[in-house]
Amino acid sequence: MAKRTYSVREYQAEVAALLPALPVAVTPLAGCRGLVLAEDLVAAVSLPPFDNSAMDGYAVRAADVAGAPVALPVADDIPAGRTAVRPLEPGTAHRIMTGAPLPPGADAVVQVELTDGGTEVVTVNSAVPVGRHLRMVGEDVVAGTVVLSAGTVLGPPQLGLAAAVGAAALPVRRRPRVLVLSTGSELVEPGRELEFGQIHESNSVLIAAGVEEVGGVAEVLRFVPDDVEEFRSVVAARAGTADVLVTSGGVSAGAYEVVKDALTGRGVEFVRVLVQPGGPQGSGLVDGLPVVAFPGNPVSAALSFELFLRPALLGALGHRSVDRPRARARAAAAMTSPAGRVQYRRGRHDSGSVEVVPVGGPGSHLLASFAASNCLIEIPEDVTEVPEGAEVDVVLLD
Ligand SMILES: Nc1nc2c(c(=O)[nH]1)N[C@H]1C(S)=C(S)[C@@H](COP(=O)(O)OP(=O)(O)OC[C@H]3O[C@@H](n4cnc5c(N)ncnc54)[C@H](O)[C@@H]3O)O[C@H]1N2
Ligand code: MOO
Description:
five-stranded mixed beta sheet; binds ligand LQZAQKY5; elongated; Molybdopterin biosynthesis moeA protein, domain 3
């Protein structure tokens, strides 16, 4: 039977459908970075929670220092952290530190640099207006209001804010567990010496890094040899431990295609996507475990992750936007592309530049070219020649 063919969009939808939304779990803040908030966060407290000083200095009534220089008795000393403060009597000052609660009756703070720094009696050398160096309750956040809405991606500022309003943990879609499995008897762990005919295994490193970058947890199972029975037993043993299994290699037309041989007829369909690199693909459910099978060539595997698994993982994590930003730019060199397939060439595009420079050729083994790139140049299926200077679509990778 002829292989089913898919456009890139169609196959993206196919892989995304394999990965349903991940369950929501209330997770300590330290584990939330990069994840998506599943429910609105309502502030339990205002920010600031009380009127306080923005400077080290003296809490005063502005009217008492209007005729500066003036000397005022220092009636109290208020460090940050004081939980009760005495009211400020007219004609006196309280020494106060940054963040300490403002005593009732004070309406300004004179920073210490504008005084003689006295501890019994202070001489204030400059008049200040009402409100100087005060931070008022609720200026930033009013208790009971939504500070982070559902769908927000939790970066450092959002996590800091959650902590500031008193949340110790947040409801987020939990991280997907991704099993990354490389096949191929020629593969040797990096760090070990190669014999003739062997290569260092790199796809699992690249895919696992991509998984972690979007918030997943990758577990790498390397060097499953080209042995169908052994491959099946590894999949069966790990089926309950992951949200998705991603393999690379062993999907094309060769005599020893272990992934294809092991999974055909067991829930995985091997298809052709009209894209280059990354044409041969497989996906499906094996005993309830979503499996995506990428081609083994390093750039093919990388692009398969970029085009198919990355957006599916982001979608399952609850991200509203799963697509990379794009730009239009002029090709700095001519390129050719196969008819009937979208080609992704690797390139460099600097922000502000009108040009994109192709890096390396179209070959799916050219990993160094990919590593030297910061974008993909998308050449549509009906375009076979891109002349120098032609406008092209660019997918920005960083
Ligand atoms: N007769 C045909 N041959 C090929 C076709 C085809 O349609 N007809 N398609 C080509 C295309 S396109 C691709 S892409 C590859 C896909 O091959 P496989 O998925 O079966 O991958 P392998 O044969 O196992 O490996 C391909 C290549 O990549 C290297 N490799 C594999 N795994 C890793 C890894 N984990 N780390 C680093 N490098 C890896 C492997 O050594 C091979 O050089 O098939 C074409 N052939
Ligand atoms: O599709 Mo293969 O991925 O062109 O090299």
